[in-house]
Amino acid sequence: IAAAPYKTKQPDFISAITRKLLTKMRTAGIKLKGGTCTTDRGSEFNAGKPGIFQHTVTSFGLTYSALPSGRPAVHVESANKNIRNNINSRLAAIKSKNWVRLIPKIVNGFNNTSFTDWRAPRTPLEIVRLSPQAQVKLAKETYVKKKARNQKLPGAKLKKLEVGTWVRIALEGKVKGVK
């Protein structure tokens, strides 16, 4: 991931920050050409000068796509949550309110920490440096391994639930939190 603080959601400003982040990523050896930049339909991405944000990302060889209205970018929201939690815990530890200076350390830590899901044992930086074909191959290999491992399990032993315990229930392909 790449992150930068911003004070406004004006399209010109967001596009300038995006250009700076993409330049930094390309300089770090991350292959951008052929990738996709997906956003929600926020006005910072779709307002202002015609196509300024879209032009910014496509000038780096990325394809731009916007999610349907009302649908959050789940992977982005997840990364934002991780960054927010990391910032809050670090601020509490150092008893400071200056979170902006922590962003580079947090992003570096995230990008250099191995995942524990299908991408394991690779870090985000290792994955984005792979060719698209190698990324697909990695995903297929780990999916097959995970499926085989899950078939060997005799069945999960669930712990006893207490009143007020949060559980996740899959309903027609959607997961909802229920208390």
Polypeptide structure, described:
By secondary structure, the chain is mainly alpha-helical. It has helices at residues 11-27, 43-46, 52-58, 74-94, 103-111, 124-128, 132-152; strands spanning 36-39, 63-66, 167-171, 174-178. The strands form two sheets. It has a two-stranded parallel sheet. Helix 1 packs parallel to helix 3. The mean pLDDT is 77.
- Kindly state the percentage of residues in helix: 40-55%
Average per-residue pLDDT, rounded, comes to 77
What are the secondary-structure elements, in order, as H or E? HEHHEHHHHEE
User: Structural class per helix/strand content?
Assistant: mainly alpha
Rg computed from alpha carbons, rounded to a whole number of angstroms: 20 Å
Give the biggest beta sheet.
2 strands, parallel
For the biggest β-sheet, the strand order reads 1-2
Straight-line distance between termini: 32 Å
- Counting DSSP H or I runs of 4 or more residues, the number of helices is 7
Task: Report the portion of residues in β strands.
Answer: 5-15%
Stretches where pLDDT falls below 50 for ≥5 residues?
none
Morphology: globular
The count of DSSP E runs of length 2 or more, i.e. the number of strands, is 4
